[in-house]
Amino acid sequence: MRDLQPGVVSRGIVGAFIGLVVGAIVSVNVVIFAGIEDGYEATITEVFSENALVAIAAILLLAAGPIIGVLIALRERPHS
Questions:
Q1: b vs e for 23-47, b when ≥16 Cβ sit within 10 Å of the residue's Cβ?
Q2: What is the mean pLDDT of residues 61-67?
Q3: b or e along 69-80 (b: 16 or more beta carbons within 10 Å of the residue's beta carbon)?
Q4: Chain centre to alpha carbon of residue 79
Q5: Residue 3 neighbours by CB under 8 Å, 6+ apart
Q6: Measured at the alpha carbon of residue 31, what is the angle toward residues 60 and 12, in degrees to the nearest 5?
Q7: Are 19 and 66 within 8 A, CB to CB?
């Protein structure tokens, strides 16, 4: 097993937080762009009742944001 390099955990946490923020922003914009009646004020139940596909996309974006953020943050740097 590899030893953790300094800063790996903190980079992962920062990546997850930034990914969560970006995922939330994109998710809300998808809901607004889809024309859901209450826009950003709509609950997930209201979004499901108007358009289930948009609700599923919003949930997937919220879940994928932190995962993608961590993957990007922990990417191996090329050795020079």
A1: beebbbebbeebebeeeeebeeeeb
A2: 95
A3: bbeebeeeeeee
A4: 29
A5: none
A6: 40
A7: yes
Please give the model's pTM, rounded to 2 decimal places: 0.79
pLDDT at 24: 94
Query: Using CA atoms, how far apart are residues 18 and 52, in angstroms rounded to an integer?
Result: 27
Q: What are the tens digits of pLDDT across the range 20-32?
A: 999 999 999 999 9
DSSP 43: -
What's the pLDDT score for residue 2? Answer: 65
Tokens of 75: 């990417």
Tell me the C-alpha distance between 15 and 17, whole Å: 5
Q: Which two tokens stand for residue 11?
A: 């980079």
